[in-house]
Design brief:
The chain has five helices and 24 strands. It has helices spanning 3-11, 230-234, 237-246, 255-261, 266-271, and strands at 24-27, 43-49, 61-67, 76-79, 85-89, 96-103, 106-107, 111-114, 120-126, 134-143, 154-157, 163-165, 171-178, 180-187, 194-200, 205-212, 222-227, 251-254, 276-280, 287-291, 306-309, 312-313, 331-337, 356-361.
Length: 362
Amino acid sequence: MSRLSRCLDFLRPYRTVVAGLGLLVAGGGDLMGQEPDCGGRGVLRVVVLDQSGSVPIPGATVVLRWTESESARRPVREDAGPDGRLILCAPRDAQRATVWAEFGDASSDEAVVPIAAGTSREARLLLHLGEVRTGRLIGEVRDALTEKPVAAVAVSVQGRAEVTETNRMGRFILSGVPVGVHELSVRHLGYAPLSHEVTVSRGITTEVEIGLVPEPVEMAPIVATATRPRRLEVKGFYERKYWGELVSGGMFFTAADIERRSPVLISHMIADAPGIRLECSLRRTRCRLVNARGTSGFEPGGCVMGIVLDGTRLRVRQGDTIDQFVKPVEIAGLEIYRGPASLPGEFSGSDSGCGVVVIWTK
């Protein structure tokens, strides 16, 4: 029995009937209590329910992107409360929000919610239960010559009515795509049209990078596809990687990156990052990762970086090294944050002032 099924079996005797089936986006009301104080900004209320729309799903992960805003922002990735609800204050310049929910292998459709200052909006997200028979396509479209993002590109899967457009950073999302092989259609005025075969896997996001060729240049379109590991996607690794690289908020390595580098010890690869060094005792029996702005040596006060392994902060004793806990071939994703300014909130702590190394195993 899946985690979601056990959750629903527990909650079913306590269900509260909520009107309406399907995905509903509506104006605010008093369904979710009193309005928070957002200083005149817009309010978004999210509630995650089972497929019938009658059972709240506590602890479901809500993923949200603020769009049509003037500055790039990291997507919100928060867990719903015990009643399946989450309330958020919108940025002042946000005009809409794209939001969906995940719980284990189950996910909801996406909702696009308009945002206006001083108003409240509500999104009810219904998780699709049973065996997941769909996947998600997420990608980026760039000019093949200049490598600049191309906005307002029409992207669709042939045979399906849904058509999405890339945003001003060239990004797009197509969710609820049936499992199997599909023809991806990409169209934009001034560029050669592109049709490319993609494979959609059950419950998995397939990432597509597209290079459109301006007409009438004679060259072949450029397409690269990669399937994301489900575990890293659920843990938010790819969201942090995308936004971290966009705003220089950290360094990120996938299993493929590590395989290309082929380090003997993962500490050696981490120590190659700017501002980080590996300090060892005279006999090299003890080594540790140190932020270069800290003091050197093994005396007290050295700026030793924290380590998070699969979401758990390690209590590293004197003499322990990161290489005792994990080998390079065991790593699916690696995140390096050199200070608290770039550190996401979920990895912050009393020992994060010198930076944190986050490791996800396969």
